[in-house]
Design a protein that fits this description.
By secondary structure, this protein is mostly helical. Helix content is 60%, strand content 2%. Helix 6 packs across helix 7, helix 6 runs parallel beside helix 8 and helix 7 crosses helix 8. The chain starts with 14 loop residues before the first helix and ends with a helix. It is found in: Golgi apparatus membrane; Golgi apparatus, cis-Golgi network membrane. This is Protein YIPF.
Length: 301
Amino acid sequence: MASPDDLKFQEFEEATDLLLADPGASTLSMSGSSSTAPAGATGDIKLDMSDDEGQEESSELLRGEKQTSGFWTFEYYQSFFNVDTMQVLDRVKGSVMPLPGRNFIKHTLQSSPDLYGPFWICVTLVFSLAISGNLSTFLNSLGSTHYHYRPQFHRVTIAAVVIFLYAWLVPLGVWGFLTWRQREERQQSGYSFLETVCVYGYSLFIYIPTSVLWILPFEWLRWLLILVAMVISGSVLVLTFWPVVRDDTKVTAFATVATIVVLHALLSIGCKMYFFQTATHTPVPTLAPNHTAAIFTNKTH
């Protein structure tokens, strides 16, 4: 059994003194590699502080003491694109499979929003609407002798303006209103602006396959697809924002949720009405042969 004196802290001699006394001794650096000092030379002790620095940085992040970059710097926005494929796929899955009592931000995003998924979902939806709308117009007018196909590239610009304005301005309005209505006694805290943008961006994913299926020239099928897409994406928004407003007055809570649903419905219906118009063929009036001959005879007399 060790005596109390053996357990006390002991000061050891410098490594250089030890090497001078025994030149053939081996030294071990903190990185785990061993080297044998040559005879007659003093050894250098190397310390690898990379692990300690990494642990210190992690502890700073956990304690919230690490300084973050300003919002005007590239590093600030780079963190919102630092997601892998599995995370994006899991969030896309959560946006098309809403479950009762499952908050998209709390359970799927886990308070870690990204801009990678919403950005590419919006870009894909823009081209999907424009291309599918062109194909739908072409198929509806196929066989008409008075129709000449012209690519309508302006639809890409219109789709981009509509989708990106909706994906940024509507979340900005919702976030601003919820922040304004938030009170200190409320138990449920509000969401950040980026979390609001993220949930709106992922809720638009269902419209990508829907816009492709809108090419089919069946009006009843198009409206059915609109209804299904509105129910799925609208459920994601309602299940996400209802816990934030339910502690408010009933009128304010239901009015807020109703406004969110109505704006979402206007987007889908407006895109369908503009990009997938039902072609109406107006017959060109033609004169009958006998009537034309009668007119020509009257003119000769």
